[in-house]
Amino acid sequence: MISSPVLERAQRFLSALRHCQVLGMQVHEASAEGLTLRLPYSLHIVGNPDTGVIHGGAITTLMDTTCGISTVCVLPEFEICPTLDLRIDYMHPAEPGKDVFGFAECYRVTPNIIFTRGYAYQDDPEQPIAHVVGAFMRMGKSVQGGGELKRNIQQGGGA
């Protein structure tokens, strides 16, 4: 993976999110065209211990995070962009024992809202586990909110 400013910004954002650290999420690819995160399979995210199937909440977290961080891939400067709306359509359960990848892209950027879409998959992006669409509110680069998270992302530190 070749380093780029977009990749570095995505990695800083992800490293500032404690729940993503606990889940072990990693940036797989990042560019202005989109973002792919990896959610490693672990027993902590299993929803059904009898089958080993990953809990839907872990997939939701992956996709919300992927869509949210994809916003920093298209904006010229960092902005806090909280989730306004997220819809996930589950196609089939994830296979036990395999990592899950989430891809998202921003397909429309307005002065107030960023619209995203993407999918979760394991081995083949053409066989998605789930599809997602989301809307994220632009707070503006001058917003003083976000506190420690915003400072950590801008300065390159973790939470």
Descriptive account of the structure:
The structure is a single chain. A hairpin with an 8-residue loop joins strand 7 and strand 8 (130-137). The chain has a single domain (5-155), classed as Hotdog Thioesterase (Thiol Ester Dehydrase, Chain A), CATH 3.10.129.10. The chain starts with a helix and ends with a helix. It is of the alpha+beta class and 159 residues long. The mean pLDDT is 89. The protein contains 4 helices and 8 strands. 33% of the residues are buried. It has helices at 5-15, 18-23, 56-74, 147-155; strands at residues 26-31, 34-39, 46-48, 53-54, 83-90, 100-109, 113-121, 130-137. The strands form 2 sheets. It has a 6-stranded antiparallel beta sheet. Strands 3-4 form a two-stranded antiparallel ribbon. Residues 52-127 form the Thioesterase domain. InterPro entries: HotDog_dom_sf, PAAI_dom, Thioestr_dom. This is PaaI family thioesterase. GO terms for molecular function: 1,4-dihydroxy-2-naphthoyl-CoA thioesterase activity. It holds the Pfam family 4HBT.
